[in-house]
Amino acid sequence: xxxxxxxxxxxxxxxxxxxxxxxxxxxxxxxxxxxxxxxxxxxxxxxxxxxxxxxxxxxxxxxxxxxxxxxxxxxxxxxxxxxxxxxxxxxxxxxxxxxxxxxxxxxxxxxxxxxxxxxxxxxxxxxxxxxxxxxxxxxxxxxxxxxxxxxxxxxxxxxxxxxxxxxxxxxxxxxxxxxxxxxxxxxxxxxxxxxxxxxxxxxxxxxxxxxxxxxxxxxxxxxxxxxxxxxxxxxxxxxxxxxxxxxxxxxxxxxxxxxxxxxxxxxxxxxxxxxxxxxxxxxxxxxxxxxxxxxxxxxxxxxxxxxxxxxxxxxxxxxxxxxxxxxxxxxxxxxxxxxxxxxxxxxxxxxxxxxxxxxxxxxxxxxxxxxxxxxxxxxxxxxxxxxxxxxxxxxxxxxxxxxxxxxxxxxxxxxxxxxxxxxxxxxxxxxxxxxxxxx
Length: 439
Known about the structure:
Layout: H1 3-19, H2 24-39, H3 43-57, H4 64-78, H5 80-91, H6 98-114, H7 117-134, H8 139-150, H9 160-169, H10 173-179, H11 181-201, H12 216-242, H13 248-265, H14 271-305, H15 307-317, H16 322-337, H17 342-359, H18 364-378, H19 386-394, H20 401-424, H21 427-437
């Protein structure tokens, strides 16, 4: 069978099963088993596939995933993130779009603490959205910033999804985690620029209001008491990886310990917090590991049948500029992101994209970063972006899905601008990872 026919059968089979509502992992598992039977030699192929399931998840690379998830769950359920929001509130003055800017700043900070896009959006929506509505903020300037910055958690470490992408793409986990820092901050700055510019042009989007003056001493005390200790957790994860003191797995473990001790020191740790955190960690970890299991099998089938190598050879032989190929990949990811879940997109595309990227001579870390930004974009792309539905869940009853879609669109444009900047200037993504290599 021709390689293109194999690709078409595998892809169409997965899409059809996903459209039936079958869970992602089971949809891929069915396709993999059928493909293994027909393309890998019948029963021996099924046996080899089953054996491969165990080897695909018994790897040191994946150990940071449950730690990062547990750390984010502890910070979310203990309410440590709320303290950071209060500190930022005291430092912001009468800036245009003050509450929208607060959403972006605290969203970036919380992204560096939890790594959970859903928790990030849910927390900011629950805390800031009611106040935004009371102050007369438009739906664009209230809903949009919260959804936009929610996806930044996918970029800035600790990010479980970055670990999953690195594992599936077979690239260095530590370098990819560190590579996401500057692009994550860049996305936050782009959001803030849009907010300030929009509010200056149309002040009615975010009406100004009187802000009580907070004494400098109180602001400094709040920062030292509630903000700096959170910075210690960030260092326990990001700093030790960057300095080469610890592996990503060790850093994830120390960061989780730091989050536990900090919650305990503030008196926020109790049985209910621990119960919710453990349950959330188990649920998300099992889901991610199930998807990784079937993804590795999918990659092996593509390699064994010759579909993936043939596709790479076909593309490389075409007289097309390599950058056009990269842009075409980004367009494909944007289309998939409008309809599919993040890890599913990774599973389908990475076994095909990464060999092409390597053959074209591009740095896989750079491509991993722009892919993460693109997947972040998919979280807020109508009609099926995950964060759109999270936003709906925490919004007032009079907020329609149409309102949420309209609020998300300007931030979709900002994300596209961010992707273009990162493609045009690869050094933005590679600066910090290259410093790691110099140590």
